[in-house]
Task: structure prediction
Amino acid sequence: MARNNKTIVVAICGASGSVYGVRLVAALLREGVPVHAILSHAGVYVLSHEMGYDPQSRFQDFLAGYGADTKFLKNLTVFSQDDIAAPAASGSFCHAGMVVVPCSMKTLAAVAAGYADNLINRACDVSLKEKRSLIMVPRETPLNMIHLENMTRLARAGAVILPAIPSFYSFPGTLEALVDTVVARILDHLGVVHNLAVRWGD
Ligand SMILES: Cc1cc2nc3c(=O)[nH]c(=O)nc-3n(C[C@H](O)[C@H](O)[C@H](O)COP(=O)(O)O)c2cc1C
Result:
């Protein structure tokens, strides 16, 4: 089902792979989907390290360089992990799904423990209790037993565990195309219509 008119919440944490979060937000905006983006402190650090983001600049301006159509940037609202009173902190805010991408093992652990000490953890907790779609995109390797148990716990609670593991069968020729093999699966799970990646059988 296409749900391209309701807000999607995207949290970008301090795991490696900021580009997954950036390209997801850009793709959602391109499809006309309103986005509430939440950046953790570590997420801002890794974004600056991996993609040259200037923490003093607006995330909106940065996104314009990554394929987010400027005419849709008005649909983007950006929050810090400290904005604990943001809409996504409340179950009364009806969003169409939340994605944590990339998701660190720390945020994974906090959500698995129900430890809602910042906006990201709280919004995940709310998504689970309200039975809204919650997609966690963890990035770590190798995984220890604590990581695996936290993922299992979250899957049991209703989250989709969609690891940042790109695929190669469509012969992606660029880094962006490789990243989009993951972004496309996230969009599919959100029910957002897109034509980002080649589908098997097409
Ligand atoms: C360059 C860099 C890369 C990192 N990559 C990962 C990673 O892939 N996975 C992970 O779980 N943590 C990673 N970390 C550690 C997290 O940033 C750290 O645990 C942080 O507390 C996560 O906080 P957050 O979940 O609030 O963003 C990385 C840190 C840095 C500086």
About this structure: The pocket of flavin mononucleotide is lined by residues 13-16, 40, 42-43, 45-46, 49, 104-107, 139-140 (CB under 6 Å).
